[in-house]
UniProtKB/TrEMBL annotation:
InterPro entries: Ion_trans_dom (IPR005821), K_chnl_BK_asu (IPR003929), K_chnl_Slo-like (IPR047871), NAD(P)-bd_dom_sf (IPR036291), RCK_N (IPR003148), Slowpoke-like_C (IPR048735). This is BK channel. It comes from the Eukaryota. It comes from Apteryx mantelli. Residues 320-462, 698-847 form the RCK N-terminal domain. Pfam families: BK_channel_a, Ion_trans, Slo-like_RCK, Slowpoke_C.
Amino acid sequence: MIEKFGFTGALYFQLAFIVPSLFIFLGGLFTILAFRLARYAYGFILEQIWRKKVKNKDAWWPYQRKQSSVYWIRIFSTQVEMMLSAQTSMGRVLVILVFLLNIGSLVIYFVDLTERQDFKISFPDSILFIDTGFNAFFLLYFGLRLVAADDKLRFWLELNSLVDFFTIPPVFVSYYLKKNWLGLRFLRALRLLELPRILQFLRITKNNYSIKLSKLFAVFLSTWLTAAGFIHLVENNGDPWVHPGNSQSLSYFECMYLVMVTMSTVGYGDVVVQTALGRTFIIFFIIGGLVLFANFIPEVVEIIESHRSYKSSYEVVSGKKYIVVCGNITLESVTAFLQDFLLQDKGNVCTEILFLGESLPSLELEAVFKCCSAYTTFFYGSALNFEDLKRVGMGSASACLILADVNSLQPYTEDTSNIMRVLSIKNNYPNTRVILQIIQSCNKAYLPNIPNWDWRTGDSIICFAELKLGFIAQSCLVPGLSTLLTNLFIGKENSETKRKYVENKMLLKDEDYKVITFQLSSDFAGMTFIEVCRLCFVKLNLVLLGIELKFGSQGESTILINPSVQIKLHRNTMGFFIARSLAEVKRAHFYCKACHSDIEDPEQIKKCQCKGRLHSKPFSEKLKFYQESLRISDGHPAKSRSFGVLPPLSFVDGDLDVQGEDNSRVILDSTGRFHWCDSVPLQEALLSCKDEALLNLQNHILVCVFGDANSPLIGLQDFVMPLRASNFIYHELKDIVFLGSLEYLQREWKFIQNFPKLWLFSGSALSCADLRAVNVQHCAACAILSSNTTALSNPSLVDAESILATLNVRSMQRKPSSSPLETVFRTRALGNQSEPCYKRIPVTTELKSSPNAQFINQAFDISSEIPDQDQLFSTAACTGDIFSDSCLNSLLSITYYNHHILALLQTLVTSGTNPALEEQLLEKDSILSRSSDKMMHNASRARSKLALLPLSKRLLTGAMENSFGDIYCRALDLFGILCFGLYRLMEEPNPCKNRFVIARPRSDLKMLPTDLLFCVVPFNIATTDDL
C-alpha cells in the first residue's frame, strides 16, 4: 500500500485518521464557546427588553426562574452524575467495566505492534471488530459524561476527553476503510491513571501507603508507555516536511528502553531519536521525566522499606527495660504521651518505647518516630494477634500501656476494644503488667473477670469519666481543689501565671511541689499519724498527706488520708509526701531518733549506721492496728492532745453520734460509703416552675448537662458519688439540680435514683429563663458538663455550648457587694460542704479542647499584651474555672512509674473508692442496696474529708509570725486538721475577686486575712464559725 501511494500517499493516509479527531475536537470547542456567547448575549438583550416593558423590578425574577427551570434535564443529569461518580453499585460496575475495556483496547494495540512489519497496514478482521465494539462503548460513555458535566468547556478539555477524541474516531475510520493505522492509540495508556480509583473500589488498597504506592505506580507506568508510543510513532514515520524521509525502524520495546534510559539519566546512546519531532519531545520529556523518576524511585523504596521494617520483630536485650504502647496510636496521642513520659523521666530516657499500631503511621506521625528514633520504635500489628504480641516481646516488657480515644463518639465500643486487648495480653502473657485507659466507669466491671488481672501486681485502670467528674464534683464543694490536685499530681501548672498574681513573689521562687511516695522510717512505728505528720513538717520540712496500711494474708492494702489517732504506724509503712524531690522525701526514710533528734537543718539528715531501730512487729499486731482503726468501741476513744478541744462527740451502742446529725435519717448503701435512699421515681424528682421546692431552692449545686437522646452517656453517677459520700453529715449534703434535656436525663436517672436530694429540671443552660428558674443566683456552685455528640473539624467549636453556657451563668451573677473582704467566705460548719458566700458563683466548666479557655478566661488585664493560648489555659485553670480532659493524659506515665500515686488520687477524688472496694461492689452487683450493718457503716464513715476553710481567730491566736508554718502546726495540734494548700486572692485590679492556688506554701509565707486553707478534716469534727 505504501508503494502504491508513495510518501505523499502515506501522509494523506495518516491525515485521514487525524483530521476527523481534530475536526471533532475543534468543532466541539468552537460550538461550546459560540453557544456560551450566544446565551450570554441573548440573556442580556432579553433582560434589557423585559426591564423596559415591565417597570416593576420584582416581576422580572419569576420570569427568569421560569426560563431556567428545566427540571427533567436536571434530574437526568444528576442521576447520570451519581452513576459516573461510582456512588451506586451500577456506577461502580460501569467504571470498572470502562477501565477493563480500556486495558483491552491497549492490549489490541500491543498485539497490532507485534504484527506490524515494514509498515504493514492490514489488520485482522476479528480484532478490528472487537476494537470497534470497544470504542462504540467508549463513545456511549463519553456521551454520558458529557450530559452529566456541569461545565461543558472544562469537560471538553479534560485529559480523558482528549484521549477519546484521538482514539475513538480513528477506529471508526479504520472500520470504514478496512485499513488500520497505529497512530495515537497509545494514548489509551493514560487510562491507567484510573487504576488507584479502581483498586479502592475493589477494596484492594485500604491504607494510606498502599493507595499512595498505587498512585505512584499508575503515574509512572502511564507516562512510560505513552512516551514510548509517541517516540515509536514519530520515529517510524519521520518528519512530514522532510524529503526524503528521515524515519528509522524502532520497535516499541526499543522505544520503552529509550524512555527508561532517558528518565534514569543514564543515556547509553545506543538507541537515539533522529527526527526533529522526536528530539523536541525528548527535550521537554527529560525535564519532566527526570523530576518524575527522581521522586518516584526514592518514595517507592521508602514505602517498601518502611512497610517491611514495621513488620520486623523486636530483639529483646537482657537488662534493658522497655514498654509496649498500643490502642489509639495517632499523632495527637503519641505526641502527648511522649511529652508526659519524658517529663516523668526528666529527659533521661532509660526505657525504650515500642508502639504497636493497627494502621501504618501517617507522614506526620512517622516524622515524630524518626525524631525520637533513639528510644521509640513503631511496629505494625494488633494486640489481639498473638504473633504480633510475640514480635514486640510482650512477655518481657516492663508493662503494656493501652491508650484510649477520649473524644470517641462511641465510648462503649472504644472501651470494649481496649478491654479485648487486655484479654488478649493476659491470656498469652499473664505476668505482664497492664495499665489501661477507659472512658466510662461502667465498663470497669469487665476487667476483674479477666483471668490473671490483679491490681496487687500493678495492673491499673485510669477511668477518665470517674476522675474527671470526681475532680469537677470536688470543685463544687471545694473551689480550686481540682487545680491544686492537678498541680500536685499531674504538674500542669504554669508557674509564670501563678507568680503574676502573688504578692510575696520572693517567697515562692521556682519551687514545684508534687506528691512523692516512700517508706517511712522504722523509728515512726508505734506513733500516731498526727505525731508523725507534725515531726515531718517541723523537723524534715515535709508535708505528710497520708499512708498506705497493709493488712490481710493476701497483701491487701488501703490508703488512709489523715487517719484517726487510733491508727498506729508500723514498720515499712508507705507514706505520701508533698515535696520537691525524692531526696527530700528520703529524709523521712533515714530519720533516726538517736542520731537526728538534735539536727535542725533537714538537709543534714542522711542515712546513719545506727542499729537501734525498732524491730518489726508481728503481722497479727499490724492487723490489730487496722481493725482498731476501723472499729469504734463502746465508750470513749483514747484521749490525745489533738482532740482535747473538740466539741462533744458521743458514741452510743457502737454508733457514731456526730453533733447535729439525726441518726434516724442516715441510710447508707451496702458498702457504707455513700448515702442511700429508696428509688425515687423520675416524676417525683422532676421540677417545674410552679413547684414550691424550686422556689425555695437555696445553696444548691447546679449541674448544666448538654446531651440528647442519642449522645453517649456522661456518667453522672461518677459526679454524684463524691457528693454523697458517707463521711459527710446528712445535713451537709447539698441539693443537686440537673438542668438539661429530659430525654438525656431519663437515660442517666436509673443510675442515680437511689441517691438523696437529687432534682431534675428540663431546660437548657443557654436559656436565661431556665437558669433563673433553678435559682442560679442563689446556688453554691455550678458545673457545666457536655457529651461528645458530633465530630467537628474545628476544635474551637467542640466546646461552643459549654462556653456559651458559662458566659450565660456569669451574666446572671449578682453584682459585687461592698461588704468587707472577711465576708467573702463564710462557713456554717467545718466540713467539705460548708456554705460559701462568694461575690460570684463558682463555675467549673468542662472543656474538650484546652485552648478554648481563651473564650471564658477573664483573669488577665485587657490593657496588657494579649497572652498566648497556653497562658490563657493556665490562668483559667489557676483560678479553678475550667477542667480539661488533657489534664488526665499524664496519669498514664505517672502510673507506670508509681501506681500508688493513682491510688491516692482516686482516694481523694472519689471519696475513698479503691480496687478492693470495686471488686466488692461487682460481687454485690450494685452499690445501691440498703444495709443495716451499723458497725460497717461506722467503719466506712470514719474517714477524713476535704475542706476549704478560712483563717479563724482560734488559729491566729498565739501564732508567733502569722506564717503558714504556724497555722499548719496549730491546726494540727488543736483540731487534727491537715493543711496542704492556699487559695489566695489575686492582686488588684481584680474586680471579679478571682483566686489562685498555691500548692504546699513555704513555711515562712505570710498569711493574709483573706486566705483560705485547703485542708483534710477528720470526719468526727463538726463545729461552728467560732473555730
